[in-house]
Amino acid sequence: MRTFIKTQLWPAVAILLVFTVITGLAYPAAVTAAAQTIFPGQANGSMITVNGATIGSSLIGQSFDDPKYFSGRPSAAGAGYDATLSGGSNLAPTSQVLIDRITAQVDALRKANGNAPIPVDLVTTSASGLDPDISPAAAEYQVHRVAQARSMTDDNVRAAVARHTSQPFLGFIGAASVHVLELNLDLDGLLR
Amino acid sequence: MIPSLPGLLQAFSLFAVVLLLARPLGGYMRKVFDGERVFLSPVIRPIERGVYKVMRVDETVEQRWPAYAVSVLVFSFVCILALYLQQRWQTYLPLAQTGASGVGNVPQDLAYNTSVSFDTNTNWQNYLGETTMTYLTQMAGLAVRNFTSAACGIAVAIALTRGLVRKSSPTIGNFWVDLTRTTLYILVPISFVAAIFLVSQGVIQTFASSTSIHTLQGAVQTIPLGPVASQEAIKELGNNGGGFFNANSAHPFENPTTISNWVEMLLILLIPFALTNTFGRMAGNARQGWALAAVMIVVLSAGSLVAMSSEERANPSIPAAIAQNIDQSRGNMEGKEARFGADTSGLFATVTTGTSTGAVDSMHDSFLPAGGLVPLFNIELGEITPGGAGAGLYGILVFAIIAVFIAGLMVGRTPEFLGKKVEAYEMKMAMLVVLFLAASILGFSALATATAAGKAGPLNGGPHGFSEILYAFSSQTGNNGSAFAGLTGNTLFYNLTGAFAMMLGRYAMIVPVLAIAGSMAGKRRVAASLGTFPTTGPIWVGLLIGVIIIVGALTFFPALALGPIADQLLNNAGRLF
Predict the structure, then answer these.
(1) What's the domain count of chain A?
(2) Contact A127/B250, CB-based, under 8 Å?
(3) In a domain, B438, yes or no
């Protein structure tokens, strides 16, 4: 029993304590110190400030239903873009609930935007429920509606979309996407 | 079956860089495990000595296999108990007020499941990270287990390697030394660099409490914060997979850009592939390691192609009258992030389940059935292509032993591996590993489908509901941790059966593996002759792939036919549930 405590139990307890200090306290503290020094903006959530007030994080999507704003993707996070309840719908492709939801979204989108084919990302919920992006096709689909609501020309709105479109890294890593919140801020003239 | 060109290029770029890094990192790890000086020694060696002093462990004294196994089990038990108590009392500990409001102490069954989950390197999560765990529990509880459970797996893999390559040795190394060196020399330094890089991409790292803001349209949005990057790095590197947030690596704060996504996949694959090189070096023949890496990359690539091309397709269950109004050219985007897209999500799903990681950047439950089959089958193959940190190497070595045995039967000679005779004892232990895995996955799935408590779990109907149950027990037994997350897992039934499956999948594998290590270590090495089946080269690679696929397919095909295969056929026919 004594050898068991000395050669097995004590080393197990001791190494857990030591590693809790090293990997559980010292390591995250060191990463935090370095991150806050080198990349303070990113480390604190990439917050966007307008006229001194924080209006959101550039990484976390927001709900938009006003026709003058581009809207993001449907969200399964709480009542929509609830950042304390991130997650997807987890509905199967064969789910009746999914198809009913898509049908309703298609109807609503056609009512608001006309009869062009709807890009699939506008009728599907994202994995996080907080997706800040839409596809370039999904932005183009909404250009005319936003332009009309703002009494702007389609081409002026298109130019704003282009300013907030990012291409896949190196051309093949990830997908092209349009940043919805920044685009809307830009249209409101709130982006410096 | 062929994904788009960008998807192919992304997979190729990823695998190429992983294989390029395997050699230098594999060499570095070999030196670390043999106690040789490396470039980090001036900084780390004094800390290492200090750890041994506190443990009162003599680093020069090695253990026989039973002592090594007891060390693994005692250490794991102490870790499970400590994490359980930490969750039960988390509100009385510091840093409890930060994080989402209303965090309480974790209920008994959930705390038990979570503790076993993180200590077995599974990271199955029946809780919501945002609202269940305090910063201290995440950082000084869960993240610590990300280090220790990965280090534990790597230690066992190195012990098995020593057993295979040593001649007439009674011992297979010292667990405490292996555990310490893995953590200090390998996991902490790489995690630190990776964490800083992830912050540069937008992953958060702060101790500030969650913050409420008014959105552009005037709604109130509460944005959770926390020390995420430090946990994200080891979560991927250690093949753990437990997300700080519920959405895991799909959450923009865990995985903000396409670049961070690629780097996270790299971190996932880094150690499992490098360990094959370490194995080759310790065996004195680098080609032994490359053969294993080749097997891994072939199966991983095949899975990637299927998952990526499956997700690039439109969902055939959407009725034509509605589908004609939708442009589905971007593929099946339900449960996927716009910045990643369908093929990147398919690739990530393959990578995270080919290893024992289980981090997700998309929701596997919403994959088309053929796409969801890939992660499921990957896990059921035993996660050996390339497998988890350490667990992948010892897993594929078990299959290597089975493969040389089968080759030996075909030519009628006593099978040998690395010049050691493989005999009845080793075969019994190898078969135990395979049988425990299958019995746990199929047994618990059967139990769940036969009981009301089990049947209450699935969100979706039809064969997909069965897939959710099968995936849950495959993932937990395989210590993966990803989920068909529609399943409601936070119930007494799933918390307890899941914890049992995770322990079986971990320790009923480690103990026989160490027994093989001990038995092989004691054997003399026989000289290779003309009749020796070489365990390098393309024939060996082909044989090993065949054995892995056949064992996996024979064991799980009936269950897969009831789940994803039936599901895909009905999906093609447009059936809804």
Answers:
(1) 2
(2) yes
(3) yes
Region of A21 (left: φ > 0; alpha: ψ -120 to 50; beta: rest) is alpha
Helix pair B108-119, B143-165: axis angle to 10 deg: 40
In a domain, B372, yes or no: no
Residue of chain A whose Cα is closest to the Cα of B144:
A24
Q: Are A61 and A126 in a shared domain?
A: yes
| Predicted model pTM | 0.97
Residue B209 contacts A, CB cutoff 8 Å: no
For residue A120, give the DSSP letter: G
Distance from CA of A122 to the nearest CA of B (A): 9
Q: Answer whether residue B101 shows pLDDT above 70.
A: no
**B362 Cβ under 8 Å from any chain A Cβ:** yes
ipTM above 0.95, yes or no: yes
Q: Are residues A26 and A75 in the same domain?
A: no
Instruction: Provide DSSP, B336-386.
Output: B-TTTHHHHHHHHHHHHHHTT----SB-GGGS-HHHHHHHHHHHHTTSTTT
Adjacent-strand bridge partners of B220 = B214
| Judgement on whether residues A107 and A32 belong to the same structural domain of the protein | no
Q: What is the pLDDT of residues B459-504, one digit of tens each?
A: 999 999 999 999 999 999 999 999 999 999 999 999 999 999 999 9
Residue B482 contacts A, CB cutoff 8 Å: no
Query: Would you say residue B61 has pLDDT above 80?
Result: yes
Q: In terms of residue numbers, what domain contains A7?
A: 2-42
Residues of B in contact with A16 (CB under 8 A): 75, 78-79, 82, 144, 148
pLDDT for residue B100 is more than 60 = no
From the centroid of its chain, how far is CA B551?
Answer: 20
Considering the domain architecture, whether residues A64 and A86 belong to the same structural domain is answered as yes
**Domain residue limits at B467:** 391-572
Which of B230, B368, B576 is nearest residue A99 as measured by Cβ atoms? B576
Q: Is B4 near chain A, with CB under 8 Å?
A: no
